[in-house]
Amino acid sequence: HRSKRSVPCPSSLQHGLKEGAISGHEVLRVSDELSFGPLKDVRERESFLIHRFTGESDHANLRERVTVGVETWPSRAQYSDRDIVIWHSPNVAEQLMLGMVVYRLTSSRLFEITPPAHGRFRRSTAEYTPDELAAMVTTATELQGGRLAELRADWQRLRLAPEPLRILNAGRIVPVAMEFYDAQILARCAGIPRPAERVIGEVLGNCEQVVSDTFIRFRLFELVTNGRLIADETRGSRREFMVKTAWDNNGNNGPLPGI
Q: What is the pTM of this model?
């Protein structure tokens, strides 16, 4: 019996291994968020995440994290002739991970496990407990023939798409403009100045998509930079500042009282 590697790696899988609930597996951690940024080339993606996504600011921790994320992509040379189990829930990031792994690991036996969704809840593998994941291990199905070809063709389609952001629509990954979530952010910044972190949390909590707080925070900063939001950054931390739309109730542009 050959041991299997499980990918991606939500914390629940790691805990399951440590607690002994899951046996016979070794976890492969892939920490990149594939829902935004170029997919065609690893170096191009790394450059985008560092220079466009984190910019030239002092986000040292974020810059390091996105760089490390790209470097965790699995390669054929690393896992040749290994059995790989891919866990993927119904969200765009995990569906992209499935396509990326299938596209790159052409010499491995590949299996998939799809945890069941519960409406707007449990749309991420990380939302399941270690024991719940352990109970799903035996449901792994080998990816073969037409299924493999379909996944690889879809990843190639997404690699070549010019749009830098991707969402899940009726089970299909759809490339969209980077500004896709901007209207939702702006709608929660109308009226009195509001804490930026609260705006981000409300967008995440009410969004039909599973999207990372890192990306919504990036878009909020972009809206401040291009003048659609006004920010009070006098509190000393970007995580603490207040934001408001750059127009009043009469549609007039310019600074607003209290900002």
A: 0.82
